[in-house]
Specification:
A seven-stranded parallel sheet has the order 1-2-3-4-5-6-7. It has three domains: 226 residues, Queuine tRNA-ribosyltransferase-like (TIM Barrel), CATH 3.20.20.105; 39 residues; 36 residues, no CATH class. It is built from 14 helices and seven strands. Strand 4, helix 6 and strand 5 form a beta-alpha-beta unit. The protein has 307 residues and is α/β, with parallel strands linked by helices.
Length: 307
């Protein structure tokens, strides 16, 4: 019955905000985790399980919304990743929907489901199907959503990413921490990650890696192993930002360095630039007369009003 429901899910219109390569995950229980001062942070992820603390929820509601509470004018996403005894409760799902709407979150990473190597395969399939069904419900409800790719065997990962793409959710996230933490002790974990590396580029237009990490080598692993089509805007942008990350990671930044990072981010915006399109048009179609006309290209992109 559940499998049939998932098979017949309709297509949703899922529009998600652009994300930088690395997004901090914060806990509302730890104010120091979101005390960024002048750090150039544009997007935050809030662990939704914090809202089961009535005192925290009350304080955020008193502030009016999540942005006011955090004193943060960037994008704030709610992560549905939470303990299994909560995530499997139906009440938790509708509490999540109501809260992210009321507190004006900009999007959600949803819906998590317990799909582990060490639980019976039948149970993990049931959880995977339910997670996909509820992800569809979040998106159909109107919340911008990053679908969570799930699975621990090849056909689960393929089914998860393929189904998300089929129903219109092509921005996908992977909760990679659980794999990263045990990858050295369990060789099968790396094989699972490589399986994700194979399917996510095939079915997702945008992939977001959700990682709770304390080692820079985890970002290096994604950079080194995750294939991105060379020469594309996203590949060039990621390389430029990764180079800056490697240069400054682990350092206490000066005001000048913070300004330099801001400038680099401005020079590498999430949206494809008119300059890059012009360069590619002239390279691939040299006979097109408007290839060097930046003003026309901006109008075509809808970034400049026609007179």
């Amino acid at each position: 019955m559940l499998a049939s429901e998932v098979k017949n899910l309709g297509t949703v219109k899922a529009i998600t905000p652009e994300l930088p390569p690395v997004v901090p995950i914060i806990s509302l229980k730890e104010p120091s985790s979101y005390d960024f001062n002048s750090m150039p942070i544009d997007v935050l992820i809030v662990m939704f399980e914090d809202f089961f603390d009535e005192e925290i929820r009350s304080k955020v509601e008193e502030a009016g919304d999540i942005h006011s509470y955090l004193n943060f004018d960037g994008k704030v996403l709610a992560s549905s990743i939470m303990p299994d005894d909560i995530i499997t409760q139906e009440e938790a799902f509708y509490y999540f929907l109501g809260t992210v709407d009321k507190l004006k979150f900009d999007g959600a990473i949803a819906w998590d489901s317990p799909v582990y190597v060490d639980i019976p395969l039948y149970d993990s399939w049931v959880n995977l199907l339910m997670g996909l069904k509820l992800t569809h419900e979040v998106a159909d409800w109107g919340m911008p959503v990053y679908g969570l790719a799930k699975g621990n065997v090849d056909n689960q990962i393929r089914f998860s990413t393929e189904t998300l793409a089929r129903i219109g959710i092509t921005s996908m996230a992977l909760h990679a921490s659980e794999y990263m933490m045990v990858r050295k002790e369990d060789s099968t974990v790396m094989q699972i990650l490589y399986t994700y590396f194979g399917y996510l580029p095939k079915y997702a237009q945008t992939v977001f890696w959700e990682i709770h990490f304390n080692s820079p080598e985890l970002i290096d692993l994604i950079h080194d192993e995750y294939d991105m089509l060379p020469g594309t805007w996203k590949a060039r942008r990621f390389e430029n930002l990764y180079e800056t990350y490697v240069k400054y990671r682990g350092k206490k930044l000066t005001d000048e360095e913070i300004l330099e990072i801001r400038n680099i981010k401005e020079e590498n915006p999430p949206k494809v630039s008119a300059e890059w399109i012009s360069e590619k048009v002239r390279e691939l179609f040299p006979s097109i007369e408007w290839g060097g006309d930046l003003e026309r290209i901006k109008r075509m992109l809808g970034r400049k009003k026609s007179k």
